[in-house]
Amino acid sequence: MDNTKRAEILIQAMPYIQKNYGKTIVVKYGGNAMQSEELKEAVMSDIVLMQLVGINVVLVHGGGPEINNMLDKTGKESVFKNGLRVTDKETIDIVQQVLAGKVNKSLVQHLHQSGGRAIGLCGLDGKMLMARKLSGPEDLGFVGEIDSVNPLIIMDSMKNGYIPVISTIAGGYDGEVYNINADLAAARIASKLGAKKLILMTDIRGLLRDVNDEESLISVVNIRDVPKLKKQGIIKGGMIPKIDCCVDAVKSGVKTAHILDGRMKHSILLELFTDEGIGTMLY
Protein backbone atom coordinates (compact mmCIF):
# COMPACT_ATOMS: atom_id res chain seq x y z
CA MET A 1 0.00 0.00 0.00
CA ASP A 2 1.43 3.40 -0.95
CA ASN A 3 1.49 6.40 1.36
CA THR A 4 -1.35 8.17 -0.47
CA LYS A 5 -3.66 5.22 0.15
CA ARG A 6 -2.66 5.15 3.81
CA ALA A 7 -3.49 8.84 4.12
CA GLU A 8 -6.88 8.34 2.45
CA ILE A 9 -7.77 5.58 4.94
CA LEU A 10 -6.88 7.82 7.87
CA ILE A 11 -8.95 10.69 6.46
CA GLN A 12 -11.95 8.38 5.96
CA ALA A 13 -11.67 7.21 9.57
CA MET A 14 -11.45 10.75 10.98
CA PRO A 15 -15.24 11.43 11.28
CA TYR A 16 -15.67 8.19 13.24
CA ILE A 17 -12.73 9.00 15.49
CA GLN A 18 -14.25 12.43 16.18
CA LYS A 19 -17.66 10.88 16.86
CA ASN A 20 -16.27 8.43 19.42
CA TYR A 21 -13.63 10.68 21.00
CA GLY A 22 -14.05 10.85 24.78
CA LYS A 23 -16.83 8.25 24.74
CA THR A 24 -16.82 4.96 26.65
CA ILE A 25 -17.08 1.64 24.82
CA VAL A 26 -17.38 -1.67 26.69
CA VAL A 27 -16.02 -4.72 24.88
CA LYS A 28 -16.83 -8.25 26.02
CA TYR A 29 -14.10 -10.56 24.81
CA GLY A 30 -14.13 -14.35 24.64
CA GLY A 31 -14.65 -17.30 22.32
CA ASN A 32 -12.40 -18.03 19.34
CA ALA A 33 -10.84 -14.58 19.44
CA MET A 34 -9.38 -15.49 22.83
CA GLN A 35 -8.11 -18.94 21.79
CA SER A 36 -6.18 -17.93 18.67
CA GLU A 37 -2.95 -16.05 19.39
CA GLU A 38 -3.18 -14.30 16.01
CA LEU A 39 -6.72 -13.08 16.71
CA LYS A 40 -5.80 -12.15 20.28
CA GLU A 41 -2.96 -9.93 19.04
CA ALA A 42 -5.35 -8.26 16.58
CA VAL A 43 -7.96 -7.58 19.28
CA MET A 44 -5.37 -6.18 21.67
CA SER A 45 -3.98 -3.92 18.92
CA ASP A 46 -7.51 -2.71 18.12
CA ILE A 47 -8.18 -1.85 21.76
CA VAL A 48 -4.88 0.01 22.15
CA LEU A 49 -5.59 1.98 18.96
CA MET A 50 -9.04 2.90 20.31
CA GLN A 51 -7.42 4.22 23.47
CA LEU A 52 -4.80 6.17 21.51
CA VAL A 53 -7.50 8.01 19.51
CA GLY A 54 -9.27 9.09 22.69
CA ILE A 55 -11.84 6.35 23.31
CA ASN A 56 -12.32 5.10 26.87
CA VAL A 57 -12.23 1.31 26.50
CA VAL A 58 -13.37 -1.18 29.14
CA LEU A 59 -12.48 -4.80 28.40
CA VAL A 60 -14.66 -7.45 30.09
CA HIS A 61 -13.56 -11.03 29.54
CA GLY A 62 -14.60 -14.62 30.02
CA GLY A 63 -12.35 -17.65 29.97
CA GLY A 64 -14.46 -20.79 29.67
CA PRO A 65 -11.94 -22.91 27.72
CA GLU A 66 -9.15 -22.05 30.18
CA ILE A 67 -11.40 -23.06 33.08
CA ASN A 68 -12.27 -26.32 31.30
CA ASN A 69 -8.56 -27.06 30.81
CA MET A 70 -7.80 -26.50 34.47
CA LEU A 71 -10.74 -28.64 35.58
CA ASP A 72 -9.53 -31.41 33.25
CA LYS A 73 -6.09 -31.26 34.84
CA THR A 74 -7.62 -31.75 38.28
CA GLY A 75 -9.80 -34.60 37.00
CA LYS A 76 -13.02 -32.65 37.50
CA GLU A 77 -15.78 -32.77 34.90
CA SER A 78 -17.21 -29.56 33.41
CA VAL A 79 -20.99 -29.64 33.81
CA PHE A 80 -23.40 -27.17 32.21
CA LYS A 81 -27.14 -26.64 32.64
CA ASN A 82 -29.03 -24.23 30.37
CA GLY A 83 -25.72 -22.89 29.11
CA LEU A 84 -24.40 -22.03 32.58
CA ARG A 85 -21.53 -23.76 34.37
CA VAL A 86 -22.50 -25.75 37.46
CA THR A 87 -20.10 -24.27 40.00
CA ASP A 88 -19.51 -26.12 43.27
CA LYS A 89 -17.03 -24.96 45.93
CA GLU A 90 -14.02 -26.59 44.28
CA THR A 91 -14.99 -25.21 40.87
CA ILE A 92 -15.48 -21.62 42.07
CA ASP A 93 -11.97 -21.70 43.52
CA ILE A 94 -10.61 -22.76 40.12
CA VAL A 95 -12.78 -20.18 38.32
CA GLN A 96 -11.40 -17.44 40.55
CA GLN A 97 -7.78 -18.56 40.05
CA VAL A 98 -8.12 -18.85 36.27
CA LEU A 99 -10.23 -15.75 35.52
CA ALA A 100 -8.82 -13.24 37.99
CA GLY A 101 -5.32 -14.72 37.75
CA LYS A 102 -4.03 -16.38 34.61
CA VAL A 103 -6.46 -15.07 31.98
CA ASN A 104 -6.76 -11.53 33.35
CA LYS A 105 -3.04 -10.94 33.77
CA SER A 106 -2.29 -12.50 30.38
CA LEU A 107 -4.60 -9.97 28.69
CA VAL A 108 -3.02 -7.11 30.62
CA GLN A 109 0.40 -8.27 29.43
CA HIS A 110 -0.79 -8.52 25.82
CA LEU A 111 -2.11 -4.95 25.97
CA HIS A 112 1.21 -3.74 27.35
CA GLN A 113 3.07 -5.53 24.56
CA SER A 114 0.79 -3.78 22.04
CA GLY A 115 1.78 -0.39 23.48
CA GLY A 116 -1.19 0.20 25.77
CA ARG A 117 -1.59 0.86 29.48
CA ALA A 118 -3.87 -1.62 31.23
CA ILE A 119 -4.83 -2.64 34.73
CA GLY A 120 -6.32 -5.99 35.72
CA LEU A 121 -9.44 -5.95 37.87
CA CYS A 122 -12.16 -8.34 38.96
CA GLY A 123 -15.64 -7.84 40.33
CA LEU A 124 -14.33 -8.21 43.88
CA ASP A 125 -12.15 -5.10 43.61
CA GLY A 126 -13.76 -2.06 45.18
CA LYS A 127 -17.02 -4.01 45.47
CA MET A 128 -17.38 -3.46 41.74
CA LEU A 129 -19.83 -6.35 41.28
CA MET A 130 -22.08 -7.52 44.09
CA ALA A 131 -24.21 -10.58 43.45
CA ARG A 132 -26.77 -12.93 44.88
CA LYS A 133 -26.99 -16.65 44.23
CA LEU A 134 -28.85 -17.26 40.97
CA SER A 135 -32.33 -18.48 41.75
CA GLY A 136 -34.19 -20.97 39.60
CA PRO A 137 -35.39 -24.55 39.31
CA GLU A 138 -31.80 -25.83 38.97
CA ASP A 139 -29.22 -25.38 41.72
CA LEU A 140 -26.09 -24.24 39.88
CA GLY A 141 -24.01 -23.72 43.01
CA PHE A 142 -21.89 -20.56 43.12
CA VAL A 143 -23.40 -18.94 40.04
CA GLY A 144 -24.63 -15.43 40.73
CA GLU A 145 -26.81 -12.71 39.31
CA ILE A 146 -25.56 -9.16 39.65
CA ASP A 147 -27.35 -7.09 42.25
CA SER A 148 -25.29 -3.89 41.99
CA VAL A 149 -22.41 -2.34 40.04
CA ASN A 150 -20.03 0.18 41.61
CA PRO A 151 -18.14 1.81 38.70
CA LEU A 152 -15.77 4.04 40.72
CA ILE A 153 -12.66 1.87 40.36
CA ILE A 154 -13.33 1.52 36.60
CA MET A 155 -13.75 5.27 36.19
CA ASP A 156 -10.64 6.02 38.25
CA SER A 157 -8.62 3.60 36.11
CA MET A 158 -9.75 5.27 32.87
CA LYS A 159 -9.19 8.75 34.30
CA ASN A 160 -5.58 7.78 35.01
CA GLY A 161 -5.02 6.53 31.48
CA TYR A 162 -5.50 2.78 31.97
CA ILE A 163 -7.63 0.27 30.10
CA PRO A 164 -9.58 -1.64 32.79
CA VAL A 165 -9.48 -5.39 32.11
CA ILE A 166 -12.27 -7.00 34.14
CA SER A 167 -12.82 -10.64 35.02
CA THR A 168 -16.39 -11.49 35.93
CA ILE A 169 -16.40 -12.92 39.41
CA ALA A 170 -18.46 -11.09 42.02
CA GLY A 171 -18.68 -10.76 45.74
CA GLY A 172 -21.75 -12.00 47.59
CA TYR A 173 -23.44 -10.35 50.56
CA ASP A 174 -23.01 -13.72 52.24
CA GLY A 175 -19.22 -13.50 51.93
CA GLU A 176 -19.06 -16.00 49.08
CA VAL A 177 -17.59 -15.53 45.58
CA TYR A 178 -19.88 -16.02 42.58
CA ASN A 179 -19.27 -16.85 38.93
CA ILE A 180 -21.01 -14.35 36.62
CA ASN A 181 -21.87 -14.71 32.93
CA ALA A 182 -19.49 -12.34 31.10
CA ASP A 183 -22.12 -11.07 28.62
CA LEU A 184 -24.44 -10.12 31.47
CA ALA A 185 -21.64 -8.47 33.40
CA ALA A 186 -20.51 -6.45 30.37
CA ALA A 187 -24.08 -5.24 29.75
CA ARG A 188 -24.55 -4.16 33.38
CA ILE A 189 -21.17 -2.41 33.46
CA ALA A 190 -21.91 -0.61 30.18
CA SER A 191 -25.26 0.57 31.53
CA LYS A 192 -23.77 1.82 34.78
CA LEU A 193 -20.98 3.70 32.97
CA GLY A 194 -23.41 5.28 30.51
CA ALA A 195 -21.33 3.79 27.70
CA LYS A 196 -21.97 4.82 24.12
CA LYS A 197 -21.56 1.26 22.86
CA LEU A 198 -21.54 -2.32 24.12
CA ILE A 199 -19.68 -4.79 21.90
CA LEU A 200 -20.09 -8.55 22.38
CA MET A 201 -17.53 -10.60 20.47
CA THR A 202 -18.87 -14.02 19.45
CA ASP A 203 -18.03 -16.97 17.19
CA ILE A 204 -20.61 -16.15 14.51
CA ARG A 205 -21.16 -13.19 12.17
CA GLY A 206 -24.05 -11.83 14.22
CA LEU A 207 -27.79 -12.45 14.18
CA LEU A 208 -28.59 -14.62 11.16
CA ARG A 209 -32.02 -14.97 9.54
CA ASP A 210 -30.96 -18.53 8.67
CA VAL A 211 -28.39 -20.07 11.06
CA ASN A 212 -27.07 -22.23 8.21
CA ASP A 213 -26.41 -19.26 5.93
CA GLU A 214 -23.84 -16.71 7.09
CA GLU A 215 -24.89 -14.44 4.23
CA SER A 216 -28.31 -13.99 5.90
CA LEU A 217 -26.89 -11.54 8.46
CA ILE A 218 -29.36 -9.05 9.93
CA SER A 219 -27.25 -5.89 10.21
CA VAL A 220 -29.58 -3.65 12.22
CA VAL A 221 -32.30 -4.48 14.75
CA ASN A 222 -34.59 -2.08 16.60
CA ILE A 223 -35.08 -3.58 20.06
CA ARG A 224 -38.85 -3.19 19.60
CA ASP A 225 -38.62 -5.94 16.95
CA VAL A 226 -36.91 -8.48 19.22
CA PRO A 227 -40.12 -10.18 20.51
CA LYS A 228 -41.30 -10.67 16.91
CA LEU A 229 -37.92 -12.15 15.87
CA LYS A 230 -38.12 -14.56 18.80
CA LYS A 231 -41.61 -15.68 17.79
CA GLN A 232 -40.38 -16.24 14.23
CA GLY A 233 -37.59 -18.46 15.57
CA ILE A 234 -34.86 -16.18 14.20
CA ILE A 235 -33.59 -15.37 17.68
CA LYS A 236 -33.19 -18.74 19.37
CA GLY A 237 -30.84 -20.96 21.34
CA GLY A 238 -27.61 -19.38 22.53
CA MET A 239 -28.40 -16.15 20.73
CA ILE A 240 -31.34 -15.41 23.08
CA PRO A 241 -29.27 -14.44 26.16
CA LYS A 242 -26.86 -12.37 24.04
CA ILE A 243 -29.70 -10.43 22.43
CA ASP A 244 -31.40 -10.01 25.82
CA CYS A 245 -28.17 -8.52 27.23
CA CYS A 246 -28.07 -6.06 24.35
CA VAL A 247 -31.72 -5.12 24.79
CA ASP A 248 -31.28 -4.53 28.52
CA ALA A 249 -28.22 -2.36 27.87
CA VAL A 250 -29.99 -0.22 25.26
CA LYS A 251 -33.05 0.16 27.51
CA SER A 252 -30.70 1.32 30.26
CA GLY A 253 -29.18 4.11 28.19
CA VAL A 254 -26.41 2.51 26.11
CA LYS A 255 -26.87 4.05 22.65
CA THR A 256 -26.12 0.93 20.59
CA ALA A 257 -25.13 -2.68 21.26
CA HIS A 258 -23.20 -4.76 18.74
CA ILE A 259 -22.70 -8.49 18.23
CA LEU A 260 -19.49 -8.98 16.25
CA ASP A 261 -17.64 -11.93 14.77
CA GLY A 262 -14.52 -12.39 16.88
CA ARG A 263 -13.11 -14.77 14.26
CA MET A 264 -12.51 -11.84 11.90
CA LYS A 265 -9.29 -9.87 12.41
CA HIS A 266 -9.85 -6.22 13.39
CA SER A 267 -13.62 -6.67 13.55
CA ILE A 268 -13.88 -3.92 16.19
CA LEU A 269 -12.14 -1.37 13.96
CA LEU A 270 -14.29 -2.35 10.97
CA GLU A 271 -17.40 -1.74 13.08
CA LEU A 272 -16.28 1.54 14.59
CA PHE A 273 -14.42 3.24 11.76
CA THR A 274 -16.15 2.27 8.50
CA ASP A 275 -19.46 3.18 6.83
CA GLU A 276 -20.63 -0.40 6.42
CA GLY A 277 -19.66 -1.83 9.80
CA ILE A 278 -20.02 -5.55 10.40
CA GLY A 279 -22.09 -7.80 12.65
CA THR A 280 -25.49 -6.89 14.11
CA MET A 281 -26.26 -3.54 15.73
CA LEU A 282 -29.17 -3.16 18.16
CA TYR A 283 -30.57 0.26 18.93
Task: Explain what this protein looks like in three dimensions.
The chain is α/β, with parallel strands linked by helices and 283 residues long. It is built from 10 helices and 14 strands. It has helices spanning 3-20, 32-35, 37-52, 64-73, 89-113, 152-159, 182-193, 226-231, 239-251, 267-273; strands at residues 24-29, 56-61, 80-81, 84-85, 118-122, 129-133, 144-149, 163-167, 169-172, 177-179, 197-202, 220-221, 256-261, 280-282. It starts with a helix and ends with a strand. The model has no long low-confidence stretch (mean pLDDT 91).
Salient structural properties:
4-stranded mixed beta sheet; 14 strands; 10 helices; 283 residues; 8-stranded mixed beta sheet; globular; alpha/beta
Reconstruct the topology from this structure.
Layout lengths: L2 H18 L3 E6 L2 H4 L1 H16 L3 E6 L2 H10 L6 E2 L2 E2 L3 H25 L4 E5 L6 E5 L10 E6 L2 H8 L3 E5 L1 E4 L4 E3 L2 H12 L3 E6 L17 E2 L4 H6 L7 H13 L4 E6 L5 H7 L6 E3 L1
Parallel strand pairs: 1-2, 1-11, 2-8, 5-8, 6-9, 11-13, 12-14
Antiparallel strand pairs: 3-4, 6-7, 9-10, 13-14
Helix pairs in contact: 4-5, 7-9
